[in-house]
Design a protein that fits this description.
The chain has about 80 residues and is an alpha+beta fold. Strands 1-2-3 form a three-stranded antiparallel sheet, with no helix packed on it. A hairpin with a 5-residue loop joins strand 2 and strand 3.
Length: about 80
Amino acid sequence: MKTIISALAFAAVATSAFAIEPVPGSITYDGQPHVKLERVPVGTTFRHEFHDNGRVYEEVYMVDADRNLELISRKMGSEQR
């Protein structure tokens, strides 16, 4: 039982430690959008692309159970030409 509790505690800490932080250009950079995605099913993912300092960034967001957006991945592409 202690092993299970320890594993759950570690997973909770590890998840928050590896969270992707929003950067300028991210949808959630200044906090959650004011509009909630009420008609979109929970768990839906979508891509967001933006440009910063000559680079292209692609982020993937997921709609969580509270109807907030969770940033789940970010890829940095090559420079724009």
